[in-house]
Amino acid sequence: MEKSDKRTVKIMTGNEACAEAAIASGMRFFAGYPITPSSEIAEILSKRLPEVGGVFIQMEDEIASMGAIIGASLSGLKSMTATSGPGFSLMQENIGYASMAEVPVVVVNVMRGGPSTGLPTLPSQADVMQARWGTHGDHPVIAVTPSTVQEIYEWTVKSFNFSEKYRVPVILLLDEIIGHLNEKIVIPDTDEIKIINRPLSTDPPERYIPYKFTEDDIPPIAHYGTGYRFNVTGLSHDETGFPTNDPKKIDALYRRINRKIERYKNEIIFYKTELLDDAEICLVSYGSSARSAKRAMREARASGIKVGLFQIYVLWPFPYEALREISKRIRKFIVPEMNLGQIAHEVECATRTDCIKVNRVDGSPITPQEVLEKIKYVSL
Amino acid sequence: MFPYRRYLRLDKFPHIWCTGCGCGIIMKAMLRAIDRAKIQKDDVAIVSGIGCSSRTPGYLDFNTLHTHHGRAIAFATGVKLAKPKLKVIVVTGDGDATAIGGNHFIHAARRNLDMTVILYNNHIYGMTGGQVSPTTPFGKKATTAPYGSTEPDFDISNLAIAAGASFVARSTCYHATQLDKLIERALSKKGFSLIEVFTQCPTYYGRPNRLGNAVDMLRYYKENSIPIETAKKLSDEEKRGKITIGVLHDIERPEFCEEYQKLLERVKKI
C-alpha cells in the first residue's frame, strides 16, 4: 500500500478489525446470531452499520442469518455474517445455496474448539476442512486464514473482493486468539483500499440470461427490483436459472461453478515464504499457529538450523503445486496447527512425504517452544 | 376472463402439479390480487422454499427466488431489508413453514416484517410422497403414519396471531373468489400478513384417507367452512371440525422496516 497521511494507527482486536474492514469494503448488510467468540463482530456492526446507512439484523438462528445475507446480496447489498463452530455447522446448508446460485457473501468463522459445543471461549483451527467440504456436493469455495489483526483487516477486504469477483461464498477463518487479540493496526485511507465489485449485467432485461456461459465462466449479475425479472433456485439449473434435468446442462453447470475456482486459482492462492532458500526443514502453518511457527523458526535459525516457513493465507484453494515444488529441496515438513492434523494431510498429499505434525486440541495455543522442539528433533 | 398470461412464464408450462391439486387455484387468486392491487411486476419479489407450493414462483413473471426447505422467510427477510420498496410475497406450505421453517415463521411474525405469506395447507408432504405433516389431523393416515397420526395438529393461523402477525386470514380452495380479496387485503397491509389456504391434495392426502377425489374434497371445504362472523357466535364444541374462514386478525403494530428507517434517522442525528 502507498504511504498516506490519512492512515490511522490504532490498537484493536481482530474481531473489531474485521468489522471495520467489512464496512470499508462496502458491506452494508449483516445478519447474525450471537456466538462466542465471534459476537463482538455483530455487536460492533450493530452500532457501525446504522451510522453508514446499512442494515444490521440479529436473526433467530444461523440458518436464517445465512439465508438473509443471500437474499440481501441478491438484492444488491454486499453482505456478511459472522459465527463460530456450532453456528458454522448450521450455516452449511445455505453456504451450499450461495455456491450453487453463485451469490457473493462473506462468512466469518472465528474458530473455537469442537465438535459440538466444545470450547466456546478457547481457540482451535479444527474447522479448516469443514470450510472446504462442510456443505454437501461438489462446490466451489474460497477460505482465507490471516494471522494478525493487521492481516485480518487486509484479508477481510480481500474476502469481499474474491466473493464479488468470482460470485462465490468466501469463508474468512479467524480463531479465538486473533479474534480477541489486541494489536497495533494501521488502518489505510479509504483511497488506498482496493475494492472489487461484482460484475453487473449490461444486457437489457429482456435479453438477460442469469447464468450465461461466458468466456470467463463468471456470469454477470443483476439485482432484484431493478427491472430484471429472473429466477434463482438451489436446484440444478440451466443458463436461464430454471430447474433442469438435462444431463448435459447439469454437467455443464457443476463443472463451470467449480471451474471458476480452478481456473483462477493462481490469482486466488496466496502464501508467504520466509528463509526457504537454503532450508532443509519447512514449517507449514496458518492463522495464529503461524505466529508460533515463525518465532520457533527464528530461534532455530539462531542456533544454526536451516529451517524456513511456508505460511498459508488462502487455505482453499490449497497451494498444492507450490508445496510440491518446494518439496523437491526440503528434507522434512513440519505442520503446526490447532487440530489433529487436518492440513498436515493436505501437505502430505502435496509433497508426497510424511510430515511431522505439531497439534494441540486442548484449547491452548501451540507454543514456539513446542515447534522448536520438533525442529530440533528433526534436525538431529 | 382475467388475463393470467400477463403474469405467467408461459414457457415453463405444463406445471408439475397433480390432477386435482389446489396449488393452481391459489396461484391464480394471487395473480388476481396482485393485479387488483396494481403492483408492477418489477416491484414484486416472490420467495419460496421447497415443496409443491414452492414451485409456484417458477411459473410467475416476477422477481423470483426458490430457496431451501423451510428457509423462504429467512431469504425473504434479506430481500425485503435490502430493497424495502419490493412487495415481498412468500409462498410456502404447511411442512415448509411450520415444521422445518417454524422458527423463521414465528420470528418474522414477531418482527412484523412487511411481507405477505401465502401458506398452502394441504395437511401432508406432497412433494416427497405423502408423509405426515404438522397439520395432518390426529388419526389421519400418511406414508409415515400408516396407522394414523398420533400427534395433535397445528392451528397455523392462531400460531401467527400469537407470534405477532398484523393480519391473518384463512380461506380454502373452494372459496377462490374470497381468497383473492383476502390476498389483496394482505398485500395492502403494512406488516407481517398470513393467508392460510386449506387446499386439497387428492393424491397423497385424499387417497390414503378415503376422502374422495378433488371435487369431493372441495365439497368438504364448502360444507365445513364457517365465516369468522358466524364462528364468533359458536361455542368451541359447535366449532369442532369446522374451518373458520375470513379475516381472523387485523391489528396495527410497528412494522420492522419502518422502525429500522426511524433508527437510521435517529443515528444520523447523533
What does this structure look like?
The complex is a heterodimer of chains A (380) and B (270). Chain A is α/β, with parallel strands linked by helices. Chain A has helices at 14-24, 39-51, 62-74, 85-101, 128-133, 149-166, 176-180, 247-263, 265-268, 287-302, 320-327, 342-351, 368-379; strands at residues 8-13, 27-32, 55-58, 78-83, 105-113, 119-123, 142-144, 169-175, 182-187, 231-233, 271-274, 281-286, 307-312, 314-316, 332-337, 356-359. Chain A folds into three domains: 8-192, 3-Layer(aba) Sandwich (Rossmann fold); 205-266, no CATH class; 272-379, Rossmann fold, CATH 3.40.50.920. Chain A has 13 helices and 16 strands. In chain A, β12 (281-286), α10 (287-302) and β13 (307-312) form a beta-alpha-beta unit. Chain A is globular, with a radius of gyration of 21 Å. Chain B is 37% helix and 19% strand. Chain B is globular. Chain B has a single domain (4-269), classed as 3-Layer(aba) Sandwich (Rossmann fold). With 270 residues, chain B is an alpha/beta fold. In chain B, β7, α6 (176-188) and β8 form a beta-alpha-beta unit. Chains A and B meet through α3, α4 and β10 of A and β2, α2, α4 and α11 of B. β10 (231-233) of chain A pairs parallel with β2 of chain B, so a sheet runs across the interface.
How is the secondary structure organized here?
The complex is a heterodimer of chains A (380) and B (270).
Chain A: E1 8-13, H1 14-24, E2 27-32, H2 39-51, E3 55-58, H3 62-74, E4 78-83, H4 85-101, E5 105-113, E6 119-123, H5 128-133, E7 142-144, H6 149-166, E8 169-175, H7 176-180, E9 182-187, E10 231-233, H8 247-263, H9 265-268, E11 271-274, E12 281-286, H10 287-302, E13 307-312, E14 314-316, H11 320-327, E15 332-337, H12 342-351, E16 356-359, H13 368-379
Parallel strand pairs in A: 2-3, 2-4, 4-5, 5-8, 7-8, 12-13, 12-15, 15-16
Antiparallel strand pairs in A: 1-9, 5-6, 7-14, 11-13
Chain B: H1 23-36, E1 44-48, E2 63-66, H2 72-82, E3 87-93, H3 94-100, H4 102-111, E4 115-121, E5 124-125, E6 131-132, H5 156-163, E7 167-172, H6 176-188, E8 192-198, H7 202-206, H8 214-224, E9 225-227, H9 228-231, H10 236-239, E10 243-250, H11 256-269
Parallel strand pairs in B: 1-2, 1-3, 3-4, 4-8, 7-8, 9-10
Antiparallel strand pairs in B: 5-6, 7-10
Helix pairs in contact in B: 1-6, 3-4, 4-5
Protein name (chain A): 2-oxoacid:acceptor oxidoreductase subunit alpha
Domain Pyruvate flavodoxin/ferredoxin oxidoreductase pyrimidine binding (chain A): 20-255
GO molecular function (chain A): oxidoreductase activity
